[in-house]
C-alpha cells in the first residue's frame, strides 16, 4: 500500500517500523506501541484497567524491541534510514483502530524534525481521524466505517505481507527516472483505449465474439440497467448470432418462469397467442417494461420466424425460458392446471396443499412471507415440499403420455412446483435479511439453469445444450470481485463459474450517461429519466475517458488491460428504480472489473428502453438538470 502511494507521487519509500505492545493473553489488543529509536507510547488507562505490572510491560517491550530490530535489518538490508529533516513525510498504514502504533510513529518521527507530517490510511474510526488531525499537519482517512469493527473489515484480502515481499518492495524504485531514460507511462484510460475493440452499437466483431465465446455452454450477458435500449438491442443481436452460428438452443431470462414459458410456446408455434405482443402480455407484474418492450418484442418475432424455418427443415428450435421466482401464486395455478389435464386426483391434492397460501392476498408473495415470518399466518413450507415431491414421483408417468410435447409440459409443470417451493422460502426470508433473500433468489436461478440444461440435453436433438442468459450485471457478474462478497452475498455469475468453469462466460454492459426507463419507487410508473454522468473513480468514468463511443474490453483477450481493470473502482447498477438524488448510495458499489466479468461492453451514451405501453411520464421524459429553471 505504501509502495503504491510512493510510486504515484514519485517519492522515495522507507519502512518506519512500529511494534504494537499487546496485552498479555490478548496480544491483538494494543496497550501501547514501540517505535524506532526506543520511543515507547503507553495507554496508562488501559494498563491500569488490565492491571499490567511494570515487569510485564517491560518484558513485552523487550520482546517487541528485538522483533523491531530484526525487521529493520531484514527490510533495509544494511541501508541507512531516509533523511527526513525538513521534508514532508507521509506515514501510510493499512488502517487505524486505537491509533497507538501511529501515535508512537509520529512521536518518534518528530525527533528527526520533518517539515510536515501527513497520515494516510484507507480505513479508521472517525474519532481517531479527528484526534490525529490535531496532532499532525494533515490526515487522509479514505473511509470511516460506522460502526468501526476492525481494520480488516475494510479489505477483501487482508493477508499479512511477508518479510520477502516487504524487502522486494523497498528495493523496487518509486522515484521518477531521469529524463533520458524515462518512458511515457500510459494512464489506465490510455491503456484500455489501446487494447479496446470497437463494437458498433455495442456488438463486437464476429471474430472477437468467436474468440471470447469459444466452446462455452453458458453465456451470461448482463446490463447495468433494466431500462437501456442499447443494452437490450446489442444483447439481442449477440444472442441471434449465438443461436444461428454457435448452436445455442435457449434464452434463459431474469423473468418469471410461467410468463416466459408462454413466450416459449409462442416462439415454437404452440399456444394460442397470435402475436409477440400477445405472448408478452403475461408480464403484468412490475416492472412490466423489462420484458414488454419493443426490443424484446422484435426478438421474439425473429425467434418465432427462425424456429418456423428450422422446423420445416427438420432442425431443432430454440426456446425462451425464465429463471426467476416471483411467480408464487401464478406457478401454483399452472401446477393445478397441468394436473387437471393429466391427473385430476393429483390436481385435487395440489389444490388442497396450496390452499395453505389462501390467507395471503392473491399474487402477493410478500404478504405471505410477512405473515409467515411474524406469526400472522401459517408457514406453507411443508405443503410446498409435499407437492414438489408428488410431482417428481409421478414425473416419468406424466412424461410418457404424449411424446416430446408431454415431456416439455411435464418439465414446465415440475419447474413451477419447484418455483413455488423456492418462492415460499424466499418470501419468508425477505424479512430476515437482504443477503439471505438475494442468495436464495440467485441460487434458484442457478438451479433452474441447471435443470433446463439437463432437460434440453435429454430431450432435444443437440450434442450438448448451450444457453444464453439475460440478466442484470448484478446477477451476471461474479460476486467474489465485488464488495458484496464480504457480506456473504453470491450471484448467478459466480455460481455459473463454479459449476461450469471454462464452459461459462460472463459479459457485462456499462454506460456513462444518457437516459433510462425506470421508476422512482417500487411499483411506480415507468419514467424516462436522465442518467447522470458517472461518478469519479468509477469504471464507467474510466471507460468514458478512453474517448471511444462503443467498444468491448477484456483482460482475458487482451492481458495488457488486466492491470487497469484490476483496480478496485465504483461500478454503477441501475435496476428498475433510479434515484439520481442518492446516486452514490443507491447505485454504486466497489468492483474489480477484470474478475467480475470476462468482458465488458461499454456504450458511452445510451437512451431509454421503449415500453410497449409508454406512459405519459415516459413520453414527456425528464427535464435535464442543465435546463434554465430561473427564467
UniProtKB/TrEMBL annotation:
Coiled coil: none annotated. This is Phosphoribosyltransferase domain-containing protein. Residues 76-127 form the Phosphoribosyltransferase domain. InterPro entries: Emycin_Estase, Hydrolase/PRTase-associated, PRTase-like, PRTase_dom. GO terms for biological process: response to antibiotic. Pfam families: Erythro_esteras (PF05139), Pribosyltran (PF00156).
